[in-house]
Design a protein that fits this description.
By secondary structure, the chain is an alpha+beta fold. It has two domains: 172 residues, no CATH class; 121 residues, 60s Ribosomal Protein L30, Chain: A (2-Layer Sandwich), CATH 3.30.1330. 29% of the residues lie in helices and 27% in strands. It contains nine helices and eleven strands. The strands form two sheets. It has a seven-stranded antiparallel beta sheet. A four-stranded mixed beta sheet has the order 8-11-9-10. Helix 1 runs parallel beside helix 3, helix 6 crosses helix 7 and helix 7 packs across helix 8. The longest helix is centred in the last third of the chain and has 21 residues.
């Protein structure tokens, strides 16, 4: 049975963090904006922000013991992930959001902790952003889900304490008409993030890769793409990866560093981690295609080596890339 969220009364492990969060809580209650109410607290390290005008999201609604843990909701989907350091108790984080959303008409439909939620089986049913954007420890996490009756808007808050930090993922789904027309729904990836729109297929020639590598000492793997906000390779990357594997097969003495690059949006440290993890994903894909791991290494340089200005979308797209650098 849904129950009303409470007034602001969250407690946190340090006085400074409690004061900061209390200020944000008061501000949120004074605002009628759901987006404002879902903003991370002051001092949080934001790791991911993503908004989709129309998408589907599996909202957690019950513990595993009571049935399937999630129900699909469709509409405008907004995802925010952040870290709190020093760590706050997951229960304090979810209580904080319950306090902020109550005045906006939201009722609690699920509020459970690790084992009570269903442990690993519950965690496996969740759609969680990949590391380092979000991390979930099975021994200390809490799930809060709220729903507003007037417009069926849903909010999911997942908080997990790992070591010195608490990782938080907040997802809101607000009703919106599908841009695809009645009876149609967008394709959704099966795990951490929705798949990027499919790029036009392109032919990639191993000989051309080798010639560019010989001439410049490095070559961009044009066509390698990743799912939005994630480090998972998108299916349209296969042609470029096959060509790169063929290049290594034709040149048994070739060794290379796989270098990931990002655009200039976001924090440098976060982009370093993302670019390095994307490079590692390419290394893993090449190893799966028969290239010896000893011939490959991975690194990420974030946005420190652009090949175009980041002032335009075309330039940012050009800068999001993976390169082979001969060694």
């Amino acid at each position: 049975m849904p129950r009303p969220a409470r007034p602001c009364a969250a407690s946190f492990p340090t006085a400074s963090l409690a004061a900061a969060l209390a200020l944000v809580c008061s501000a949120a209650q004074a605002s009628a904006s759901l987006e404002d109410a879902l903003a991370p607290p002051s001092g949080a390290e934001i790791t991911h922000v993503e908004t989709r005008a129309f998408d589907a999201y599996p909202v957690p609604v019950r513990p595993v013991a009571e049935g399937p843990p999630t129900e699909e909701a469709q509409g405008r989907v907004r995802k925010v992930a952040f870290r709190l350091e020093p760590a706050a108790a997951p229960a304090a984080v979810t209580a904080f959001y319950a306090d902020r959303l109550g005045p906006l008409g939201f009722d609690i439909v699920l509020d459970c902790a690790d084992i009570a939620c269903g442990g690993f089986a519950f965690r496996r049913a969740l759609r969680v952003l990949p590391q380092p954007l979000m991390a979930v420890g099975l021994g200390d996490f809490r799930q809060l889900t709220l729903r507003r009756g007037e417009d069926a808007a849903s909010v999911s808050v997942l908080a997990s304490r790992l070591g010195a930090a608490t990782h938080v993922q907040v997802v809101s789904v607000e009703g919106a008409p599908s841009p695809l027309g009645a009876g149609e729904a967008p394709a959704i990836a099966d795990e951490a993030a929705p798949a990027a729109p499919a790029a036009p297929s392109r032919s990639v020639d191993a000989g051309a890769l080798g010639a560019r590598l010989d001439a410049e000492g490095r070559v961009v793997l044009e066509g390698v793409a990743f799912e939005i906000g994630a480090t998972r390779l998108a299916p349209e990357s296969d042609a470029a990866l096959d060509a790169a594997a063929a290049l290594f097969a034709a040149r048994p003495d070739l060794s290379a560093v796989v270098v990931g690059h990002t655009d200039a949006d976001g924090d440098l440290a976060l982009n370093r981690r993302i670019s390095a993890q994307r490079a590692e994903a390419v290394v893993a894909a090449l190893v799966a295609r028969g290239v010896s791991r000893s011939r490959l290494s991975a690194d990420g340089v974030a946005f420190l080596a652009p090949r175009a200005a980041n002032a335009t979308e075309a330039g940012r797209a050009a800068n999001r890339r993976v390169e082979l650098v001969a060694r």
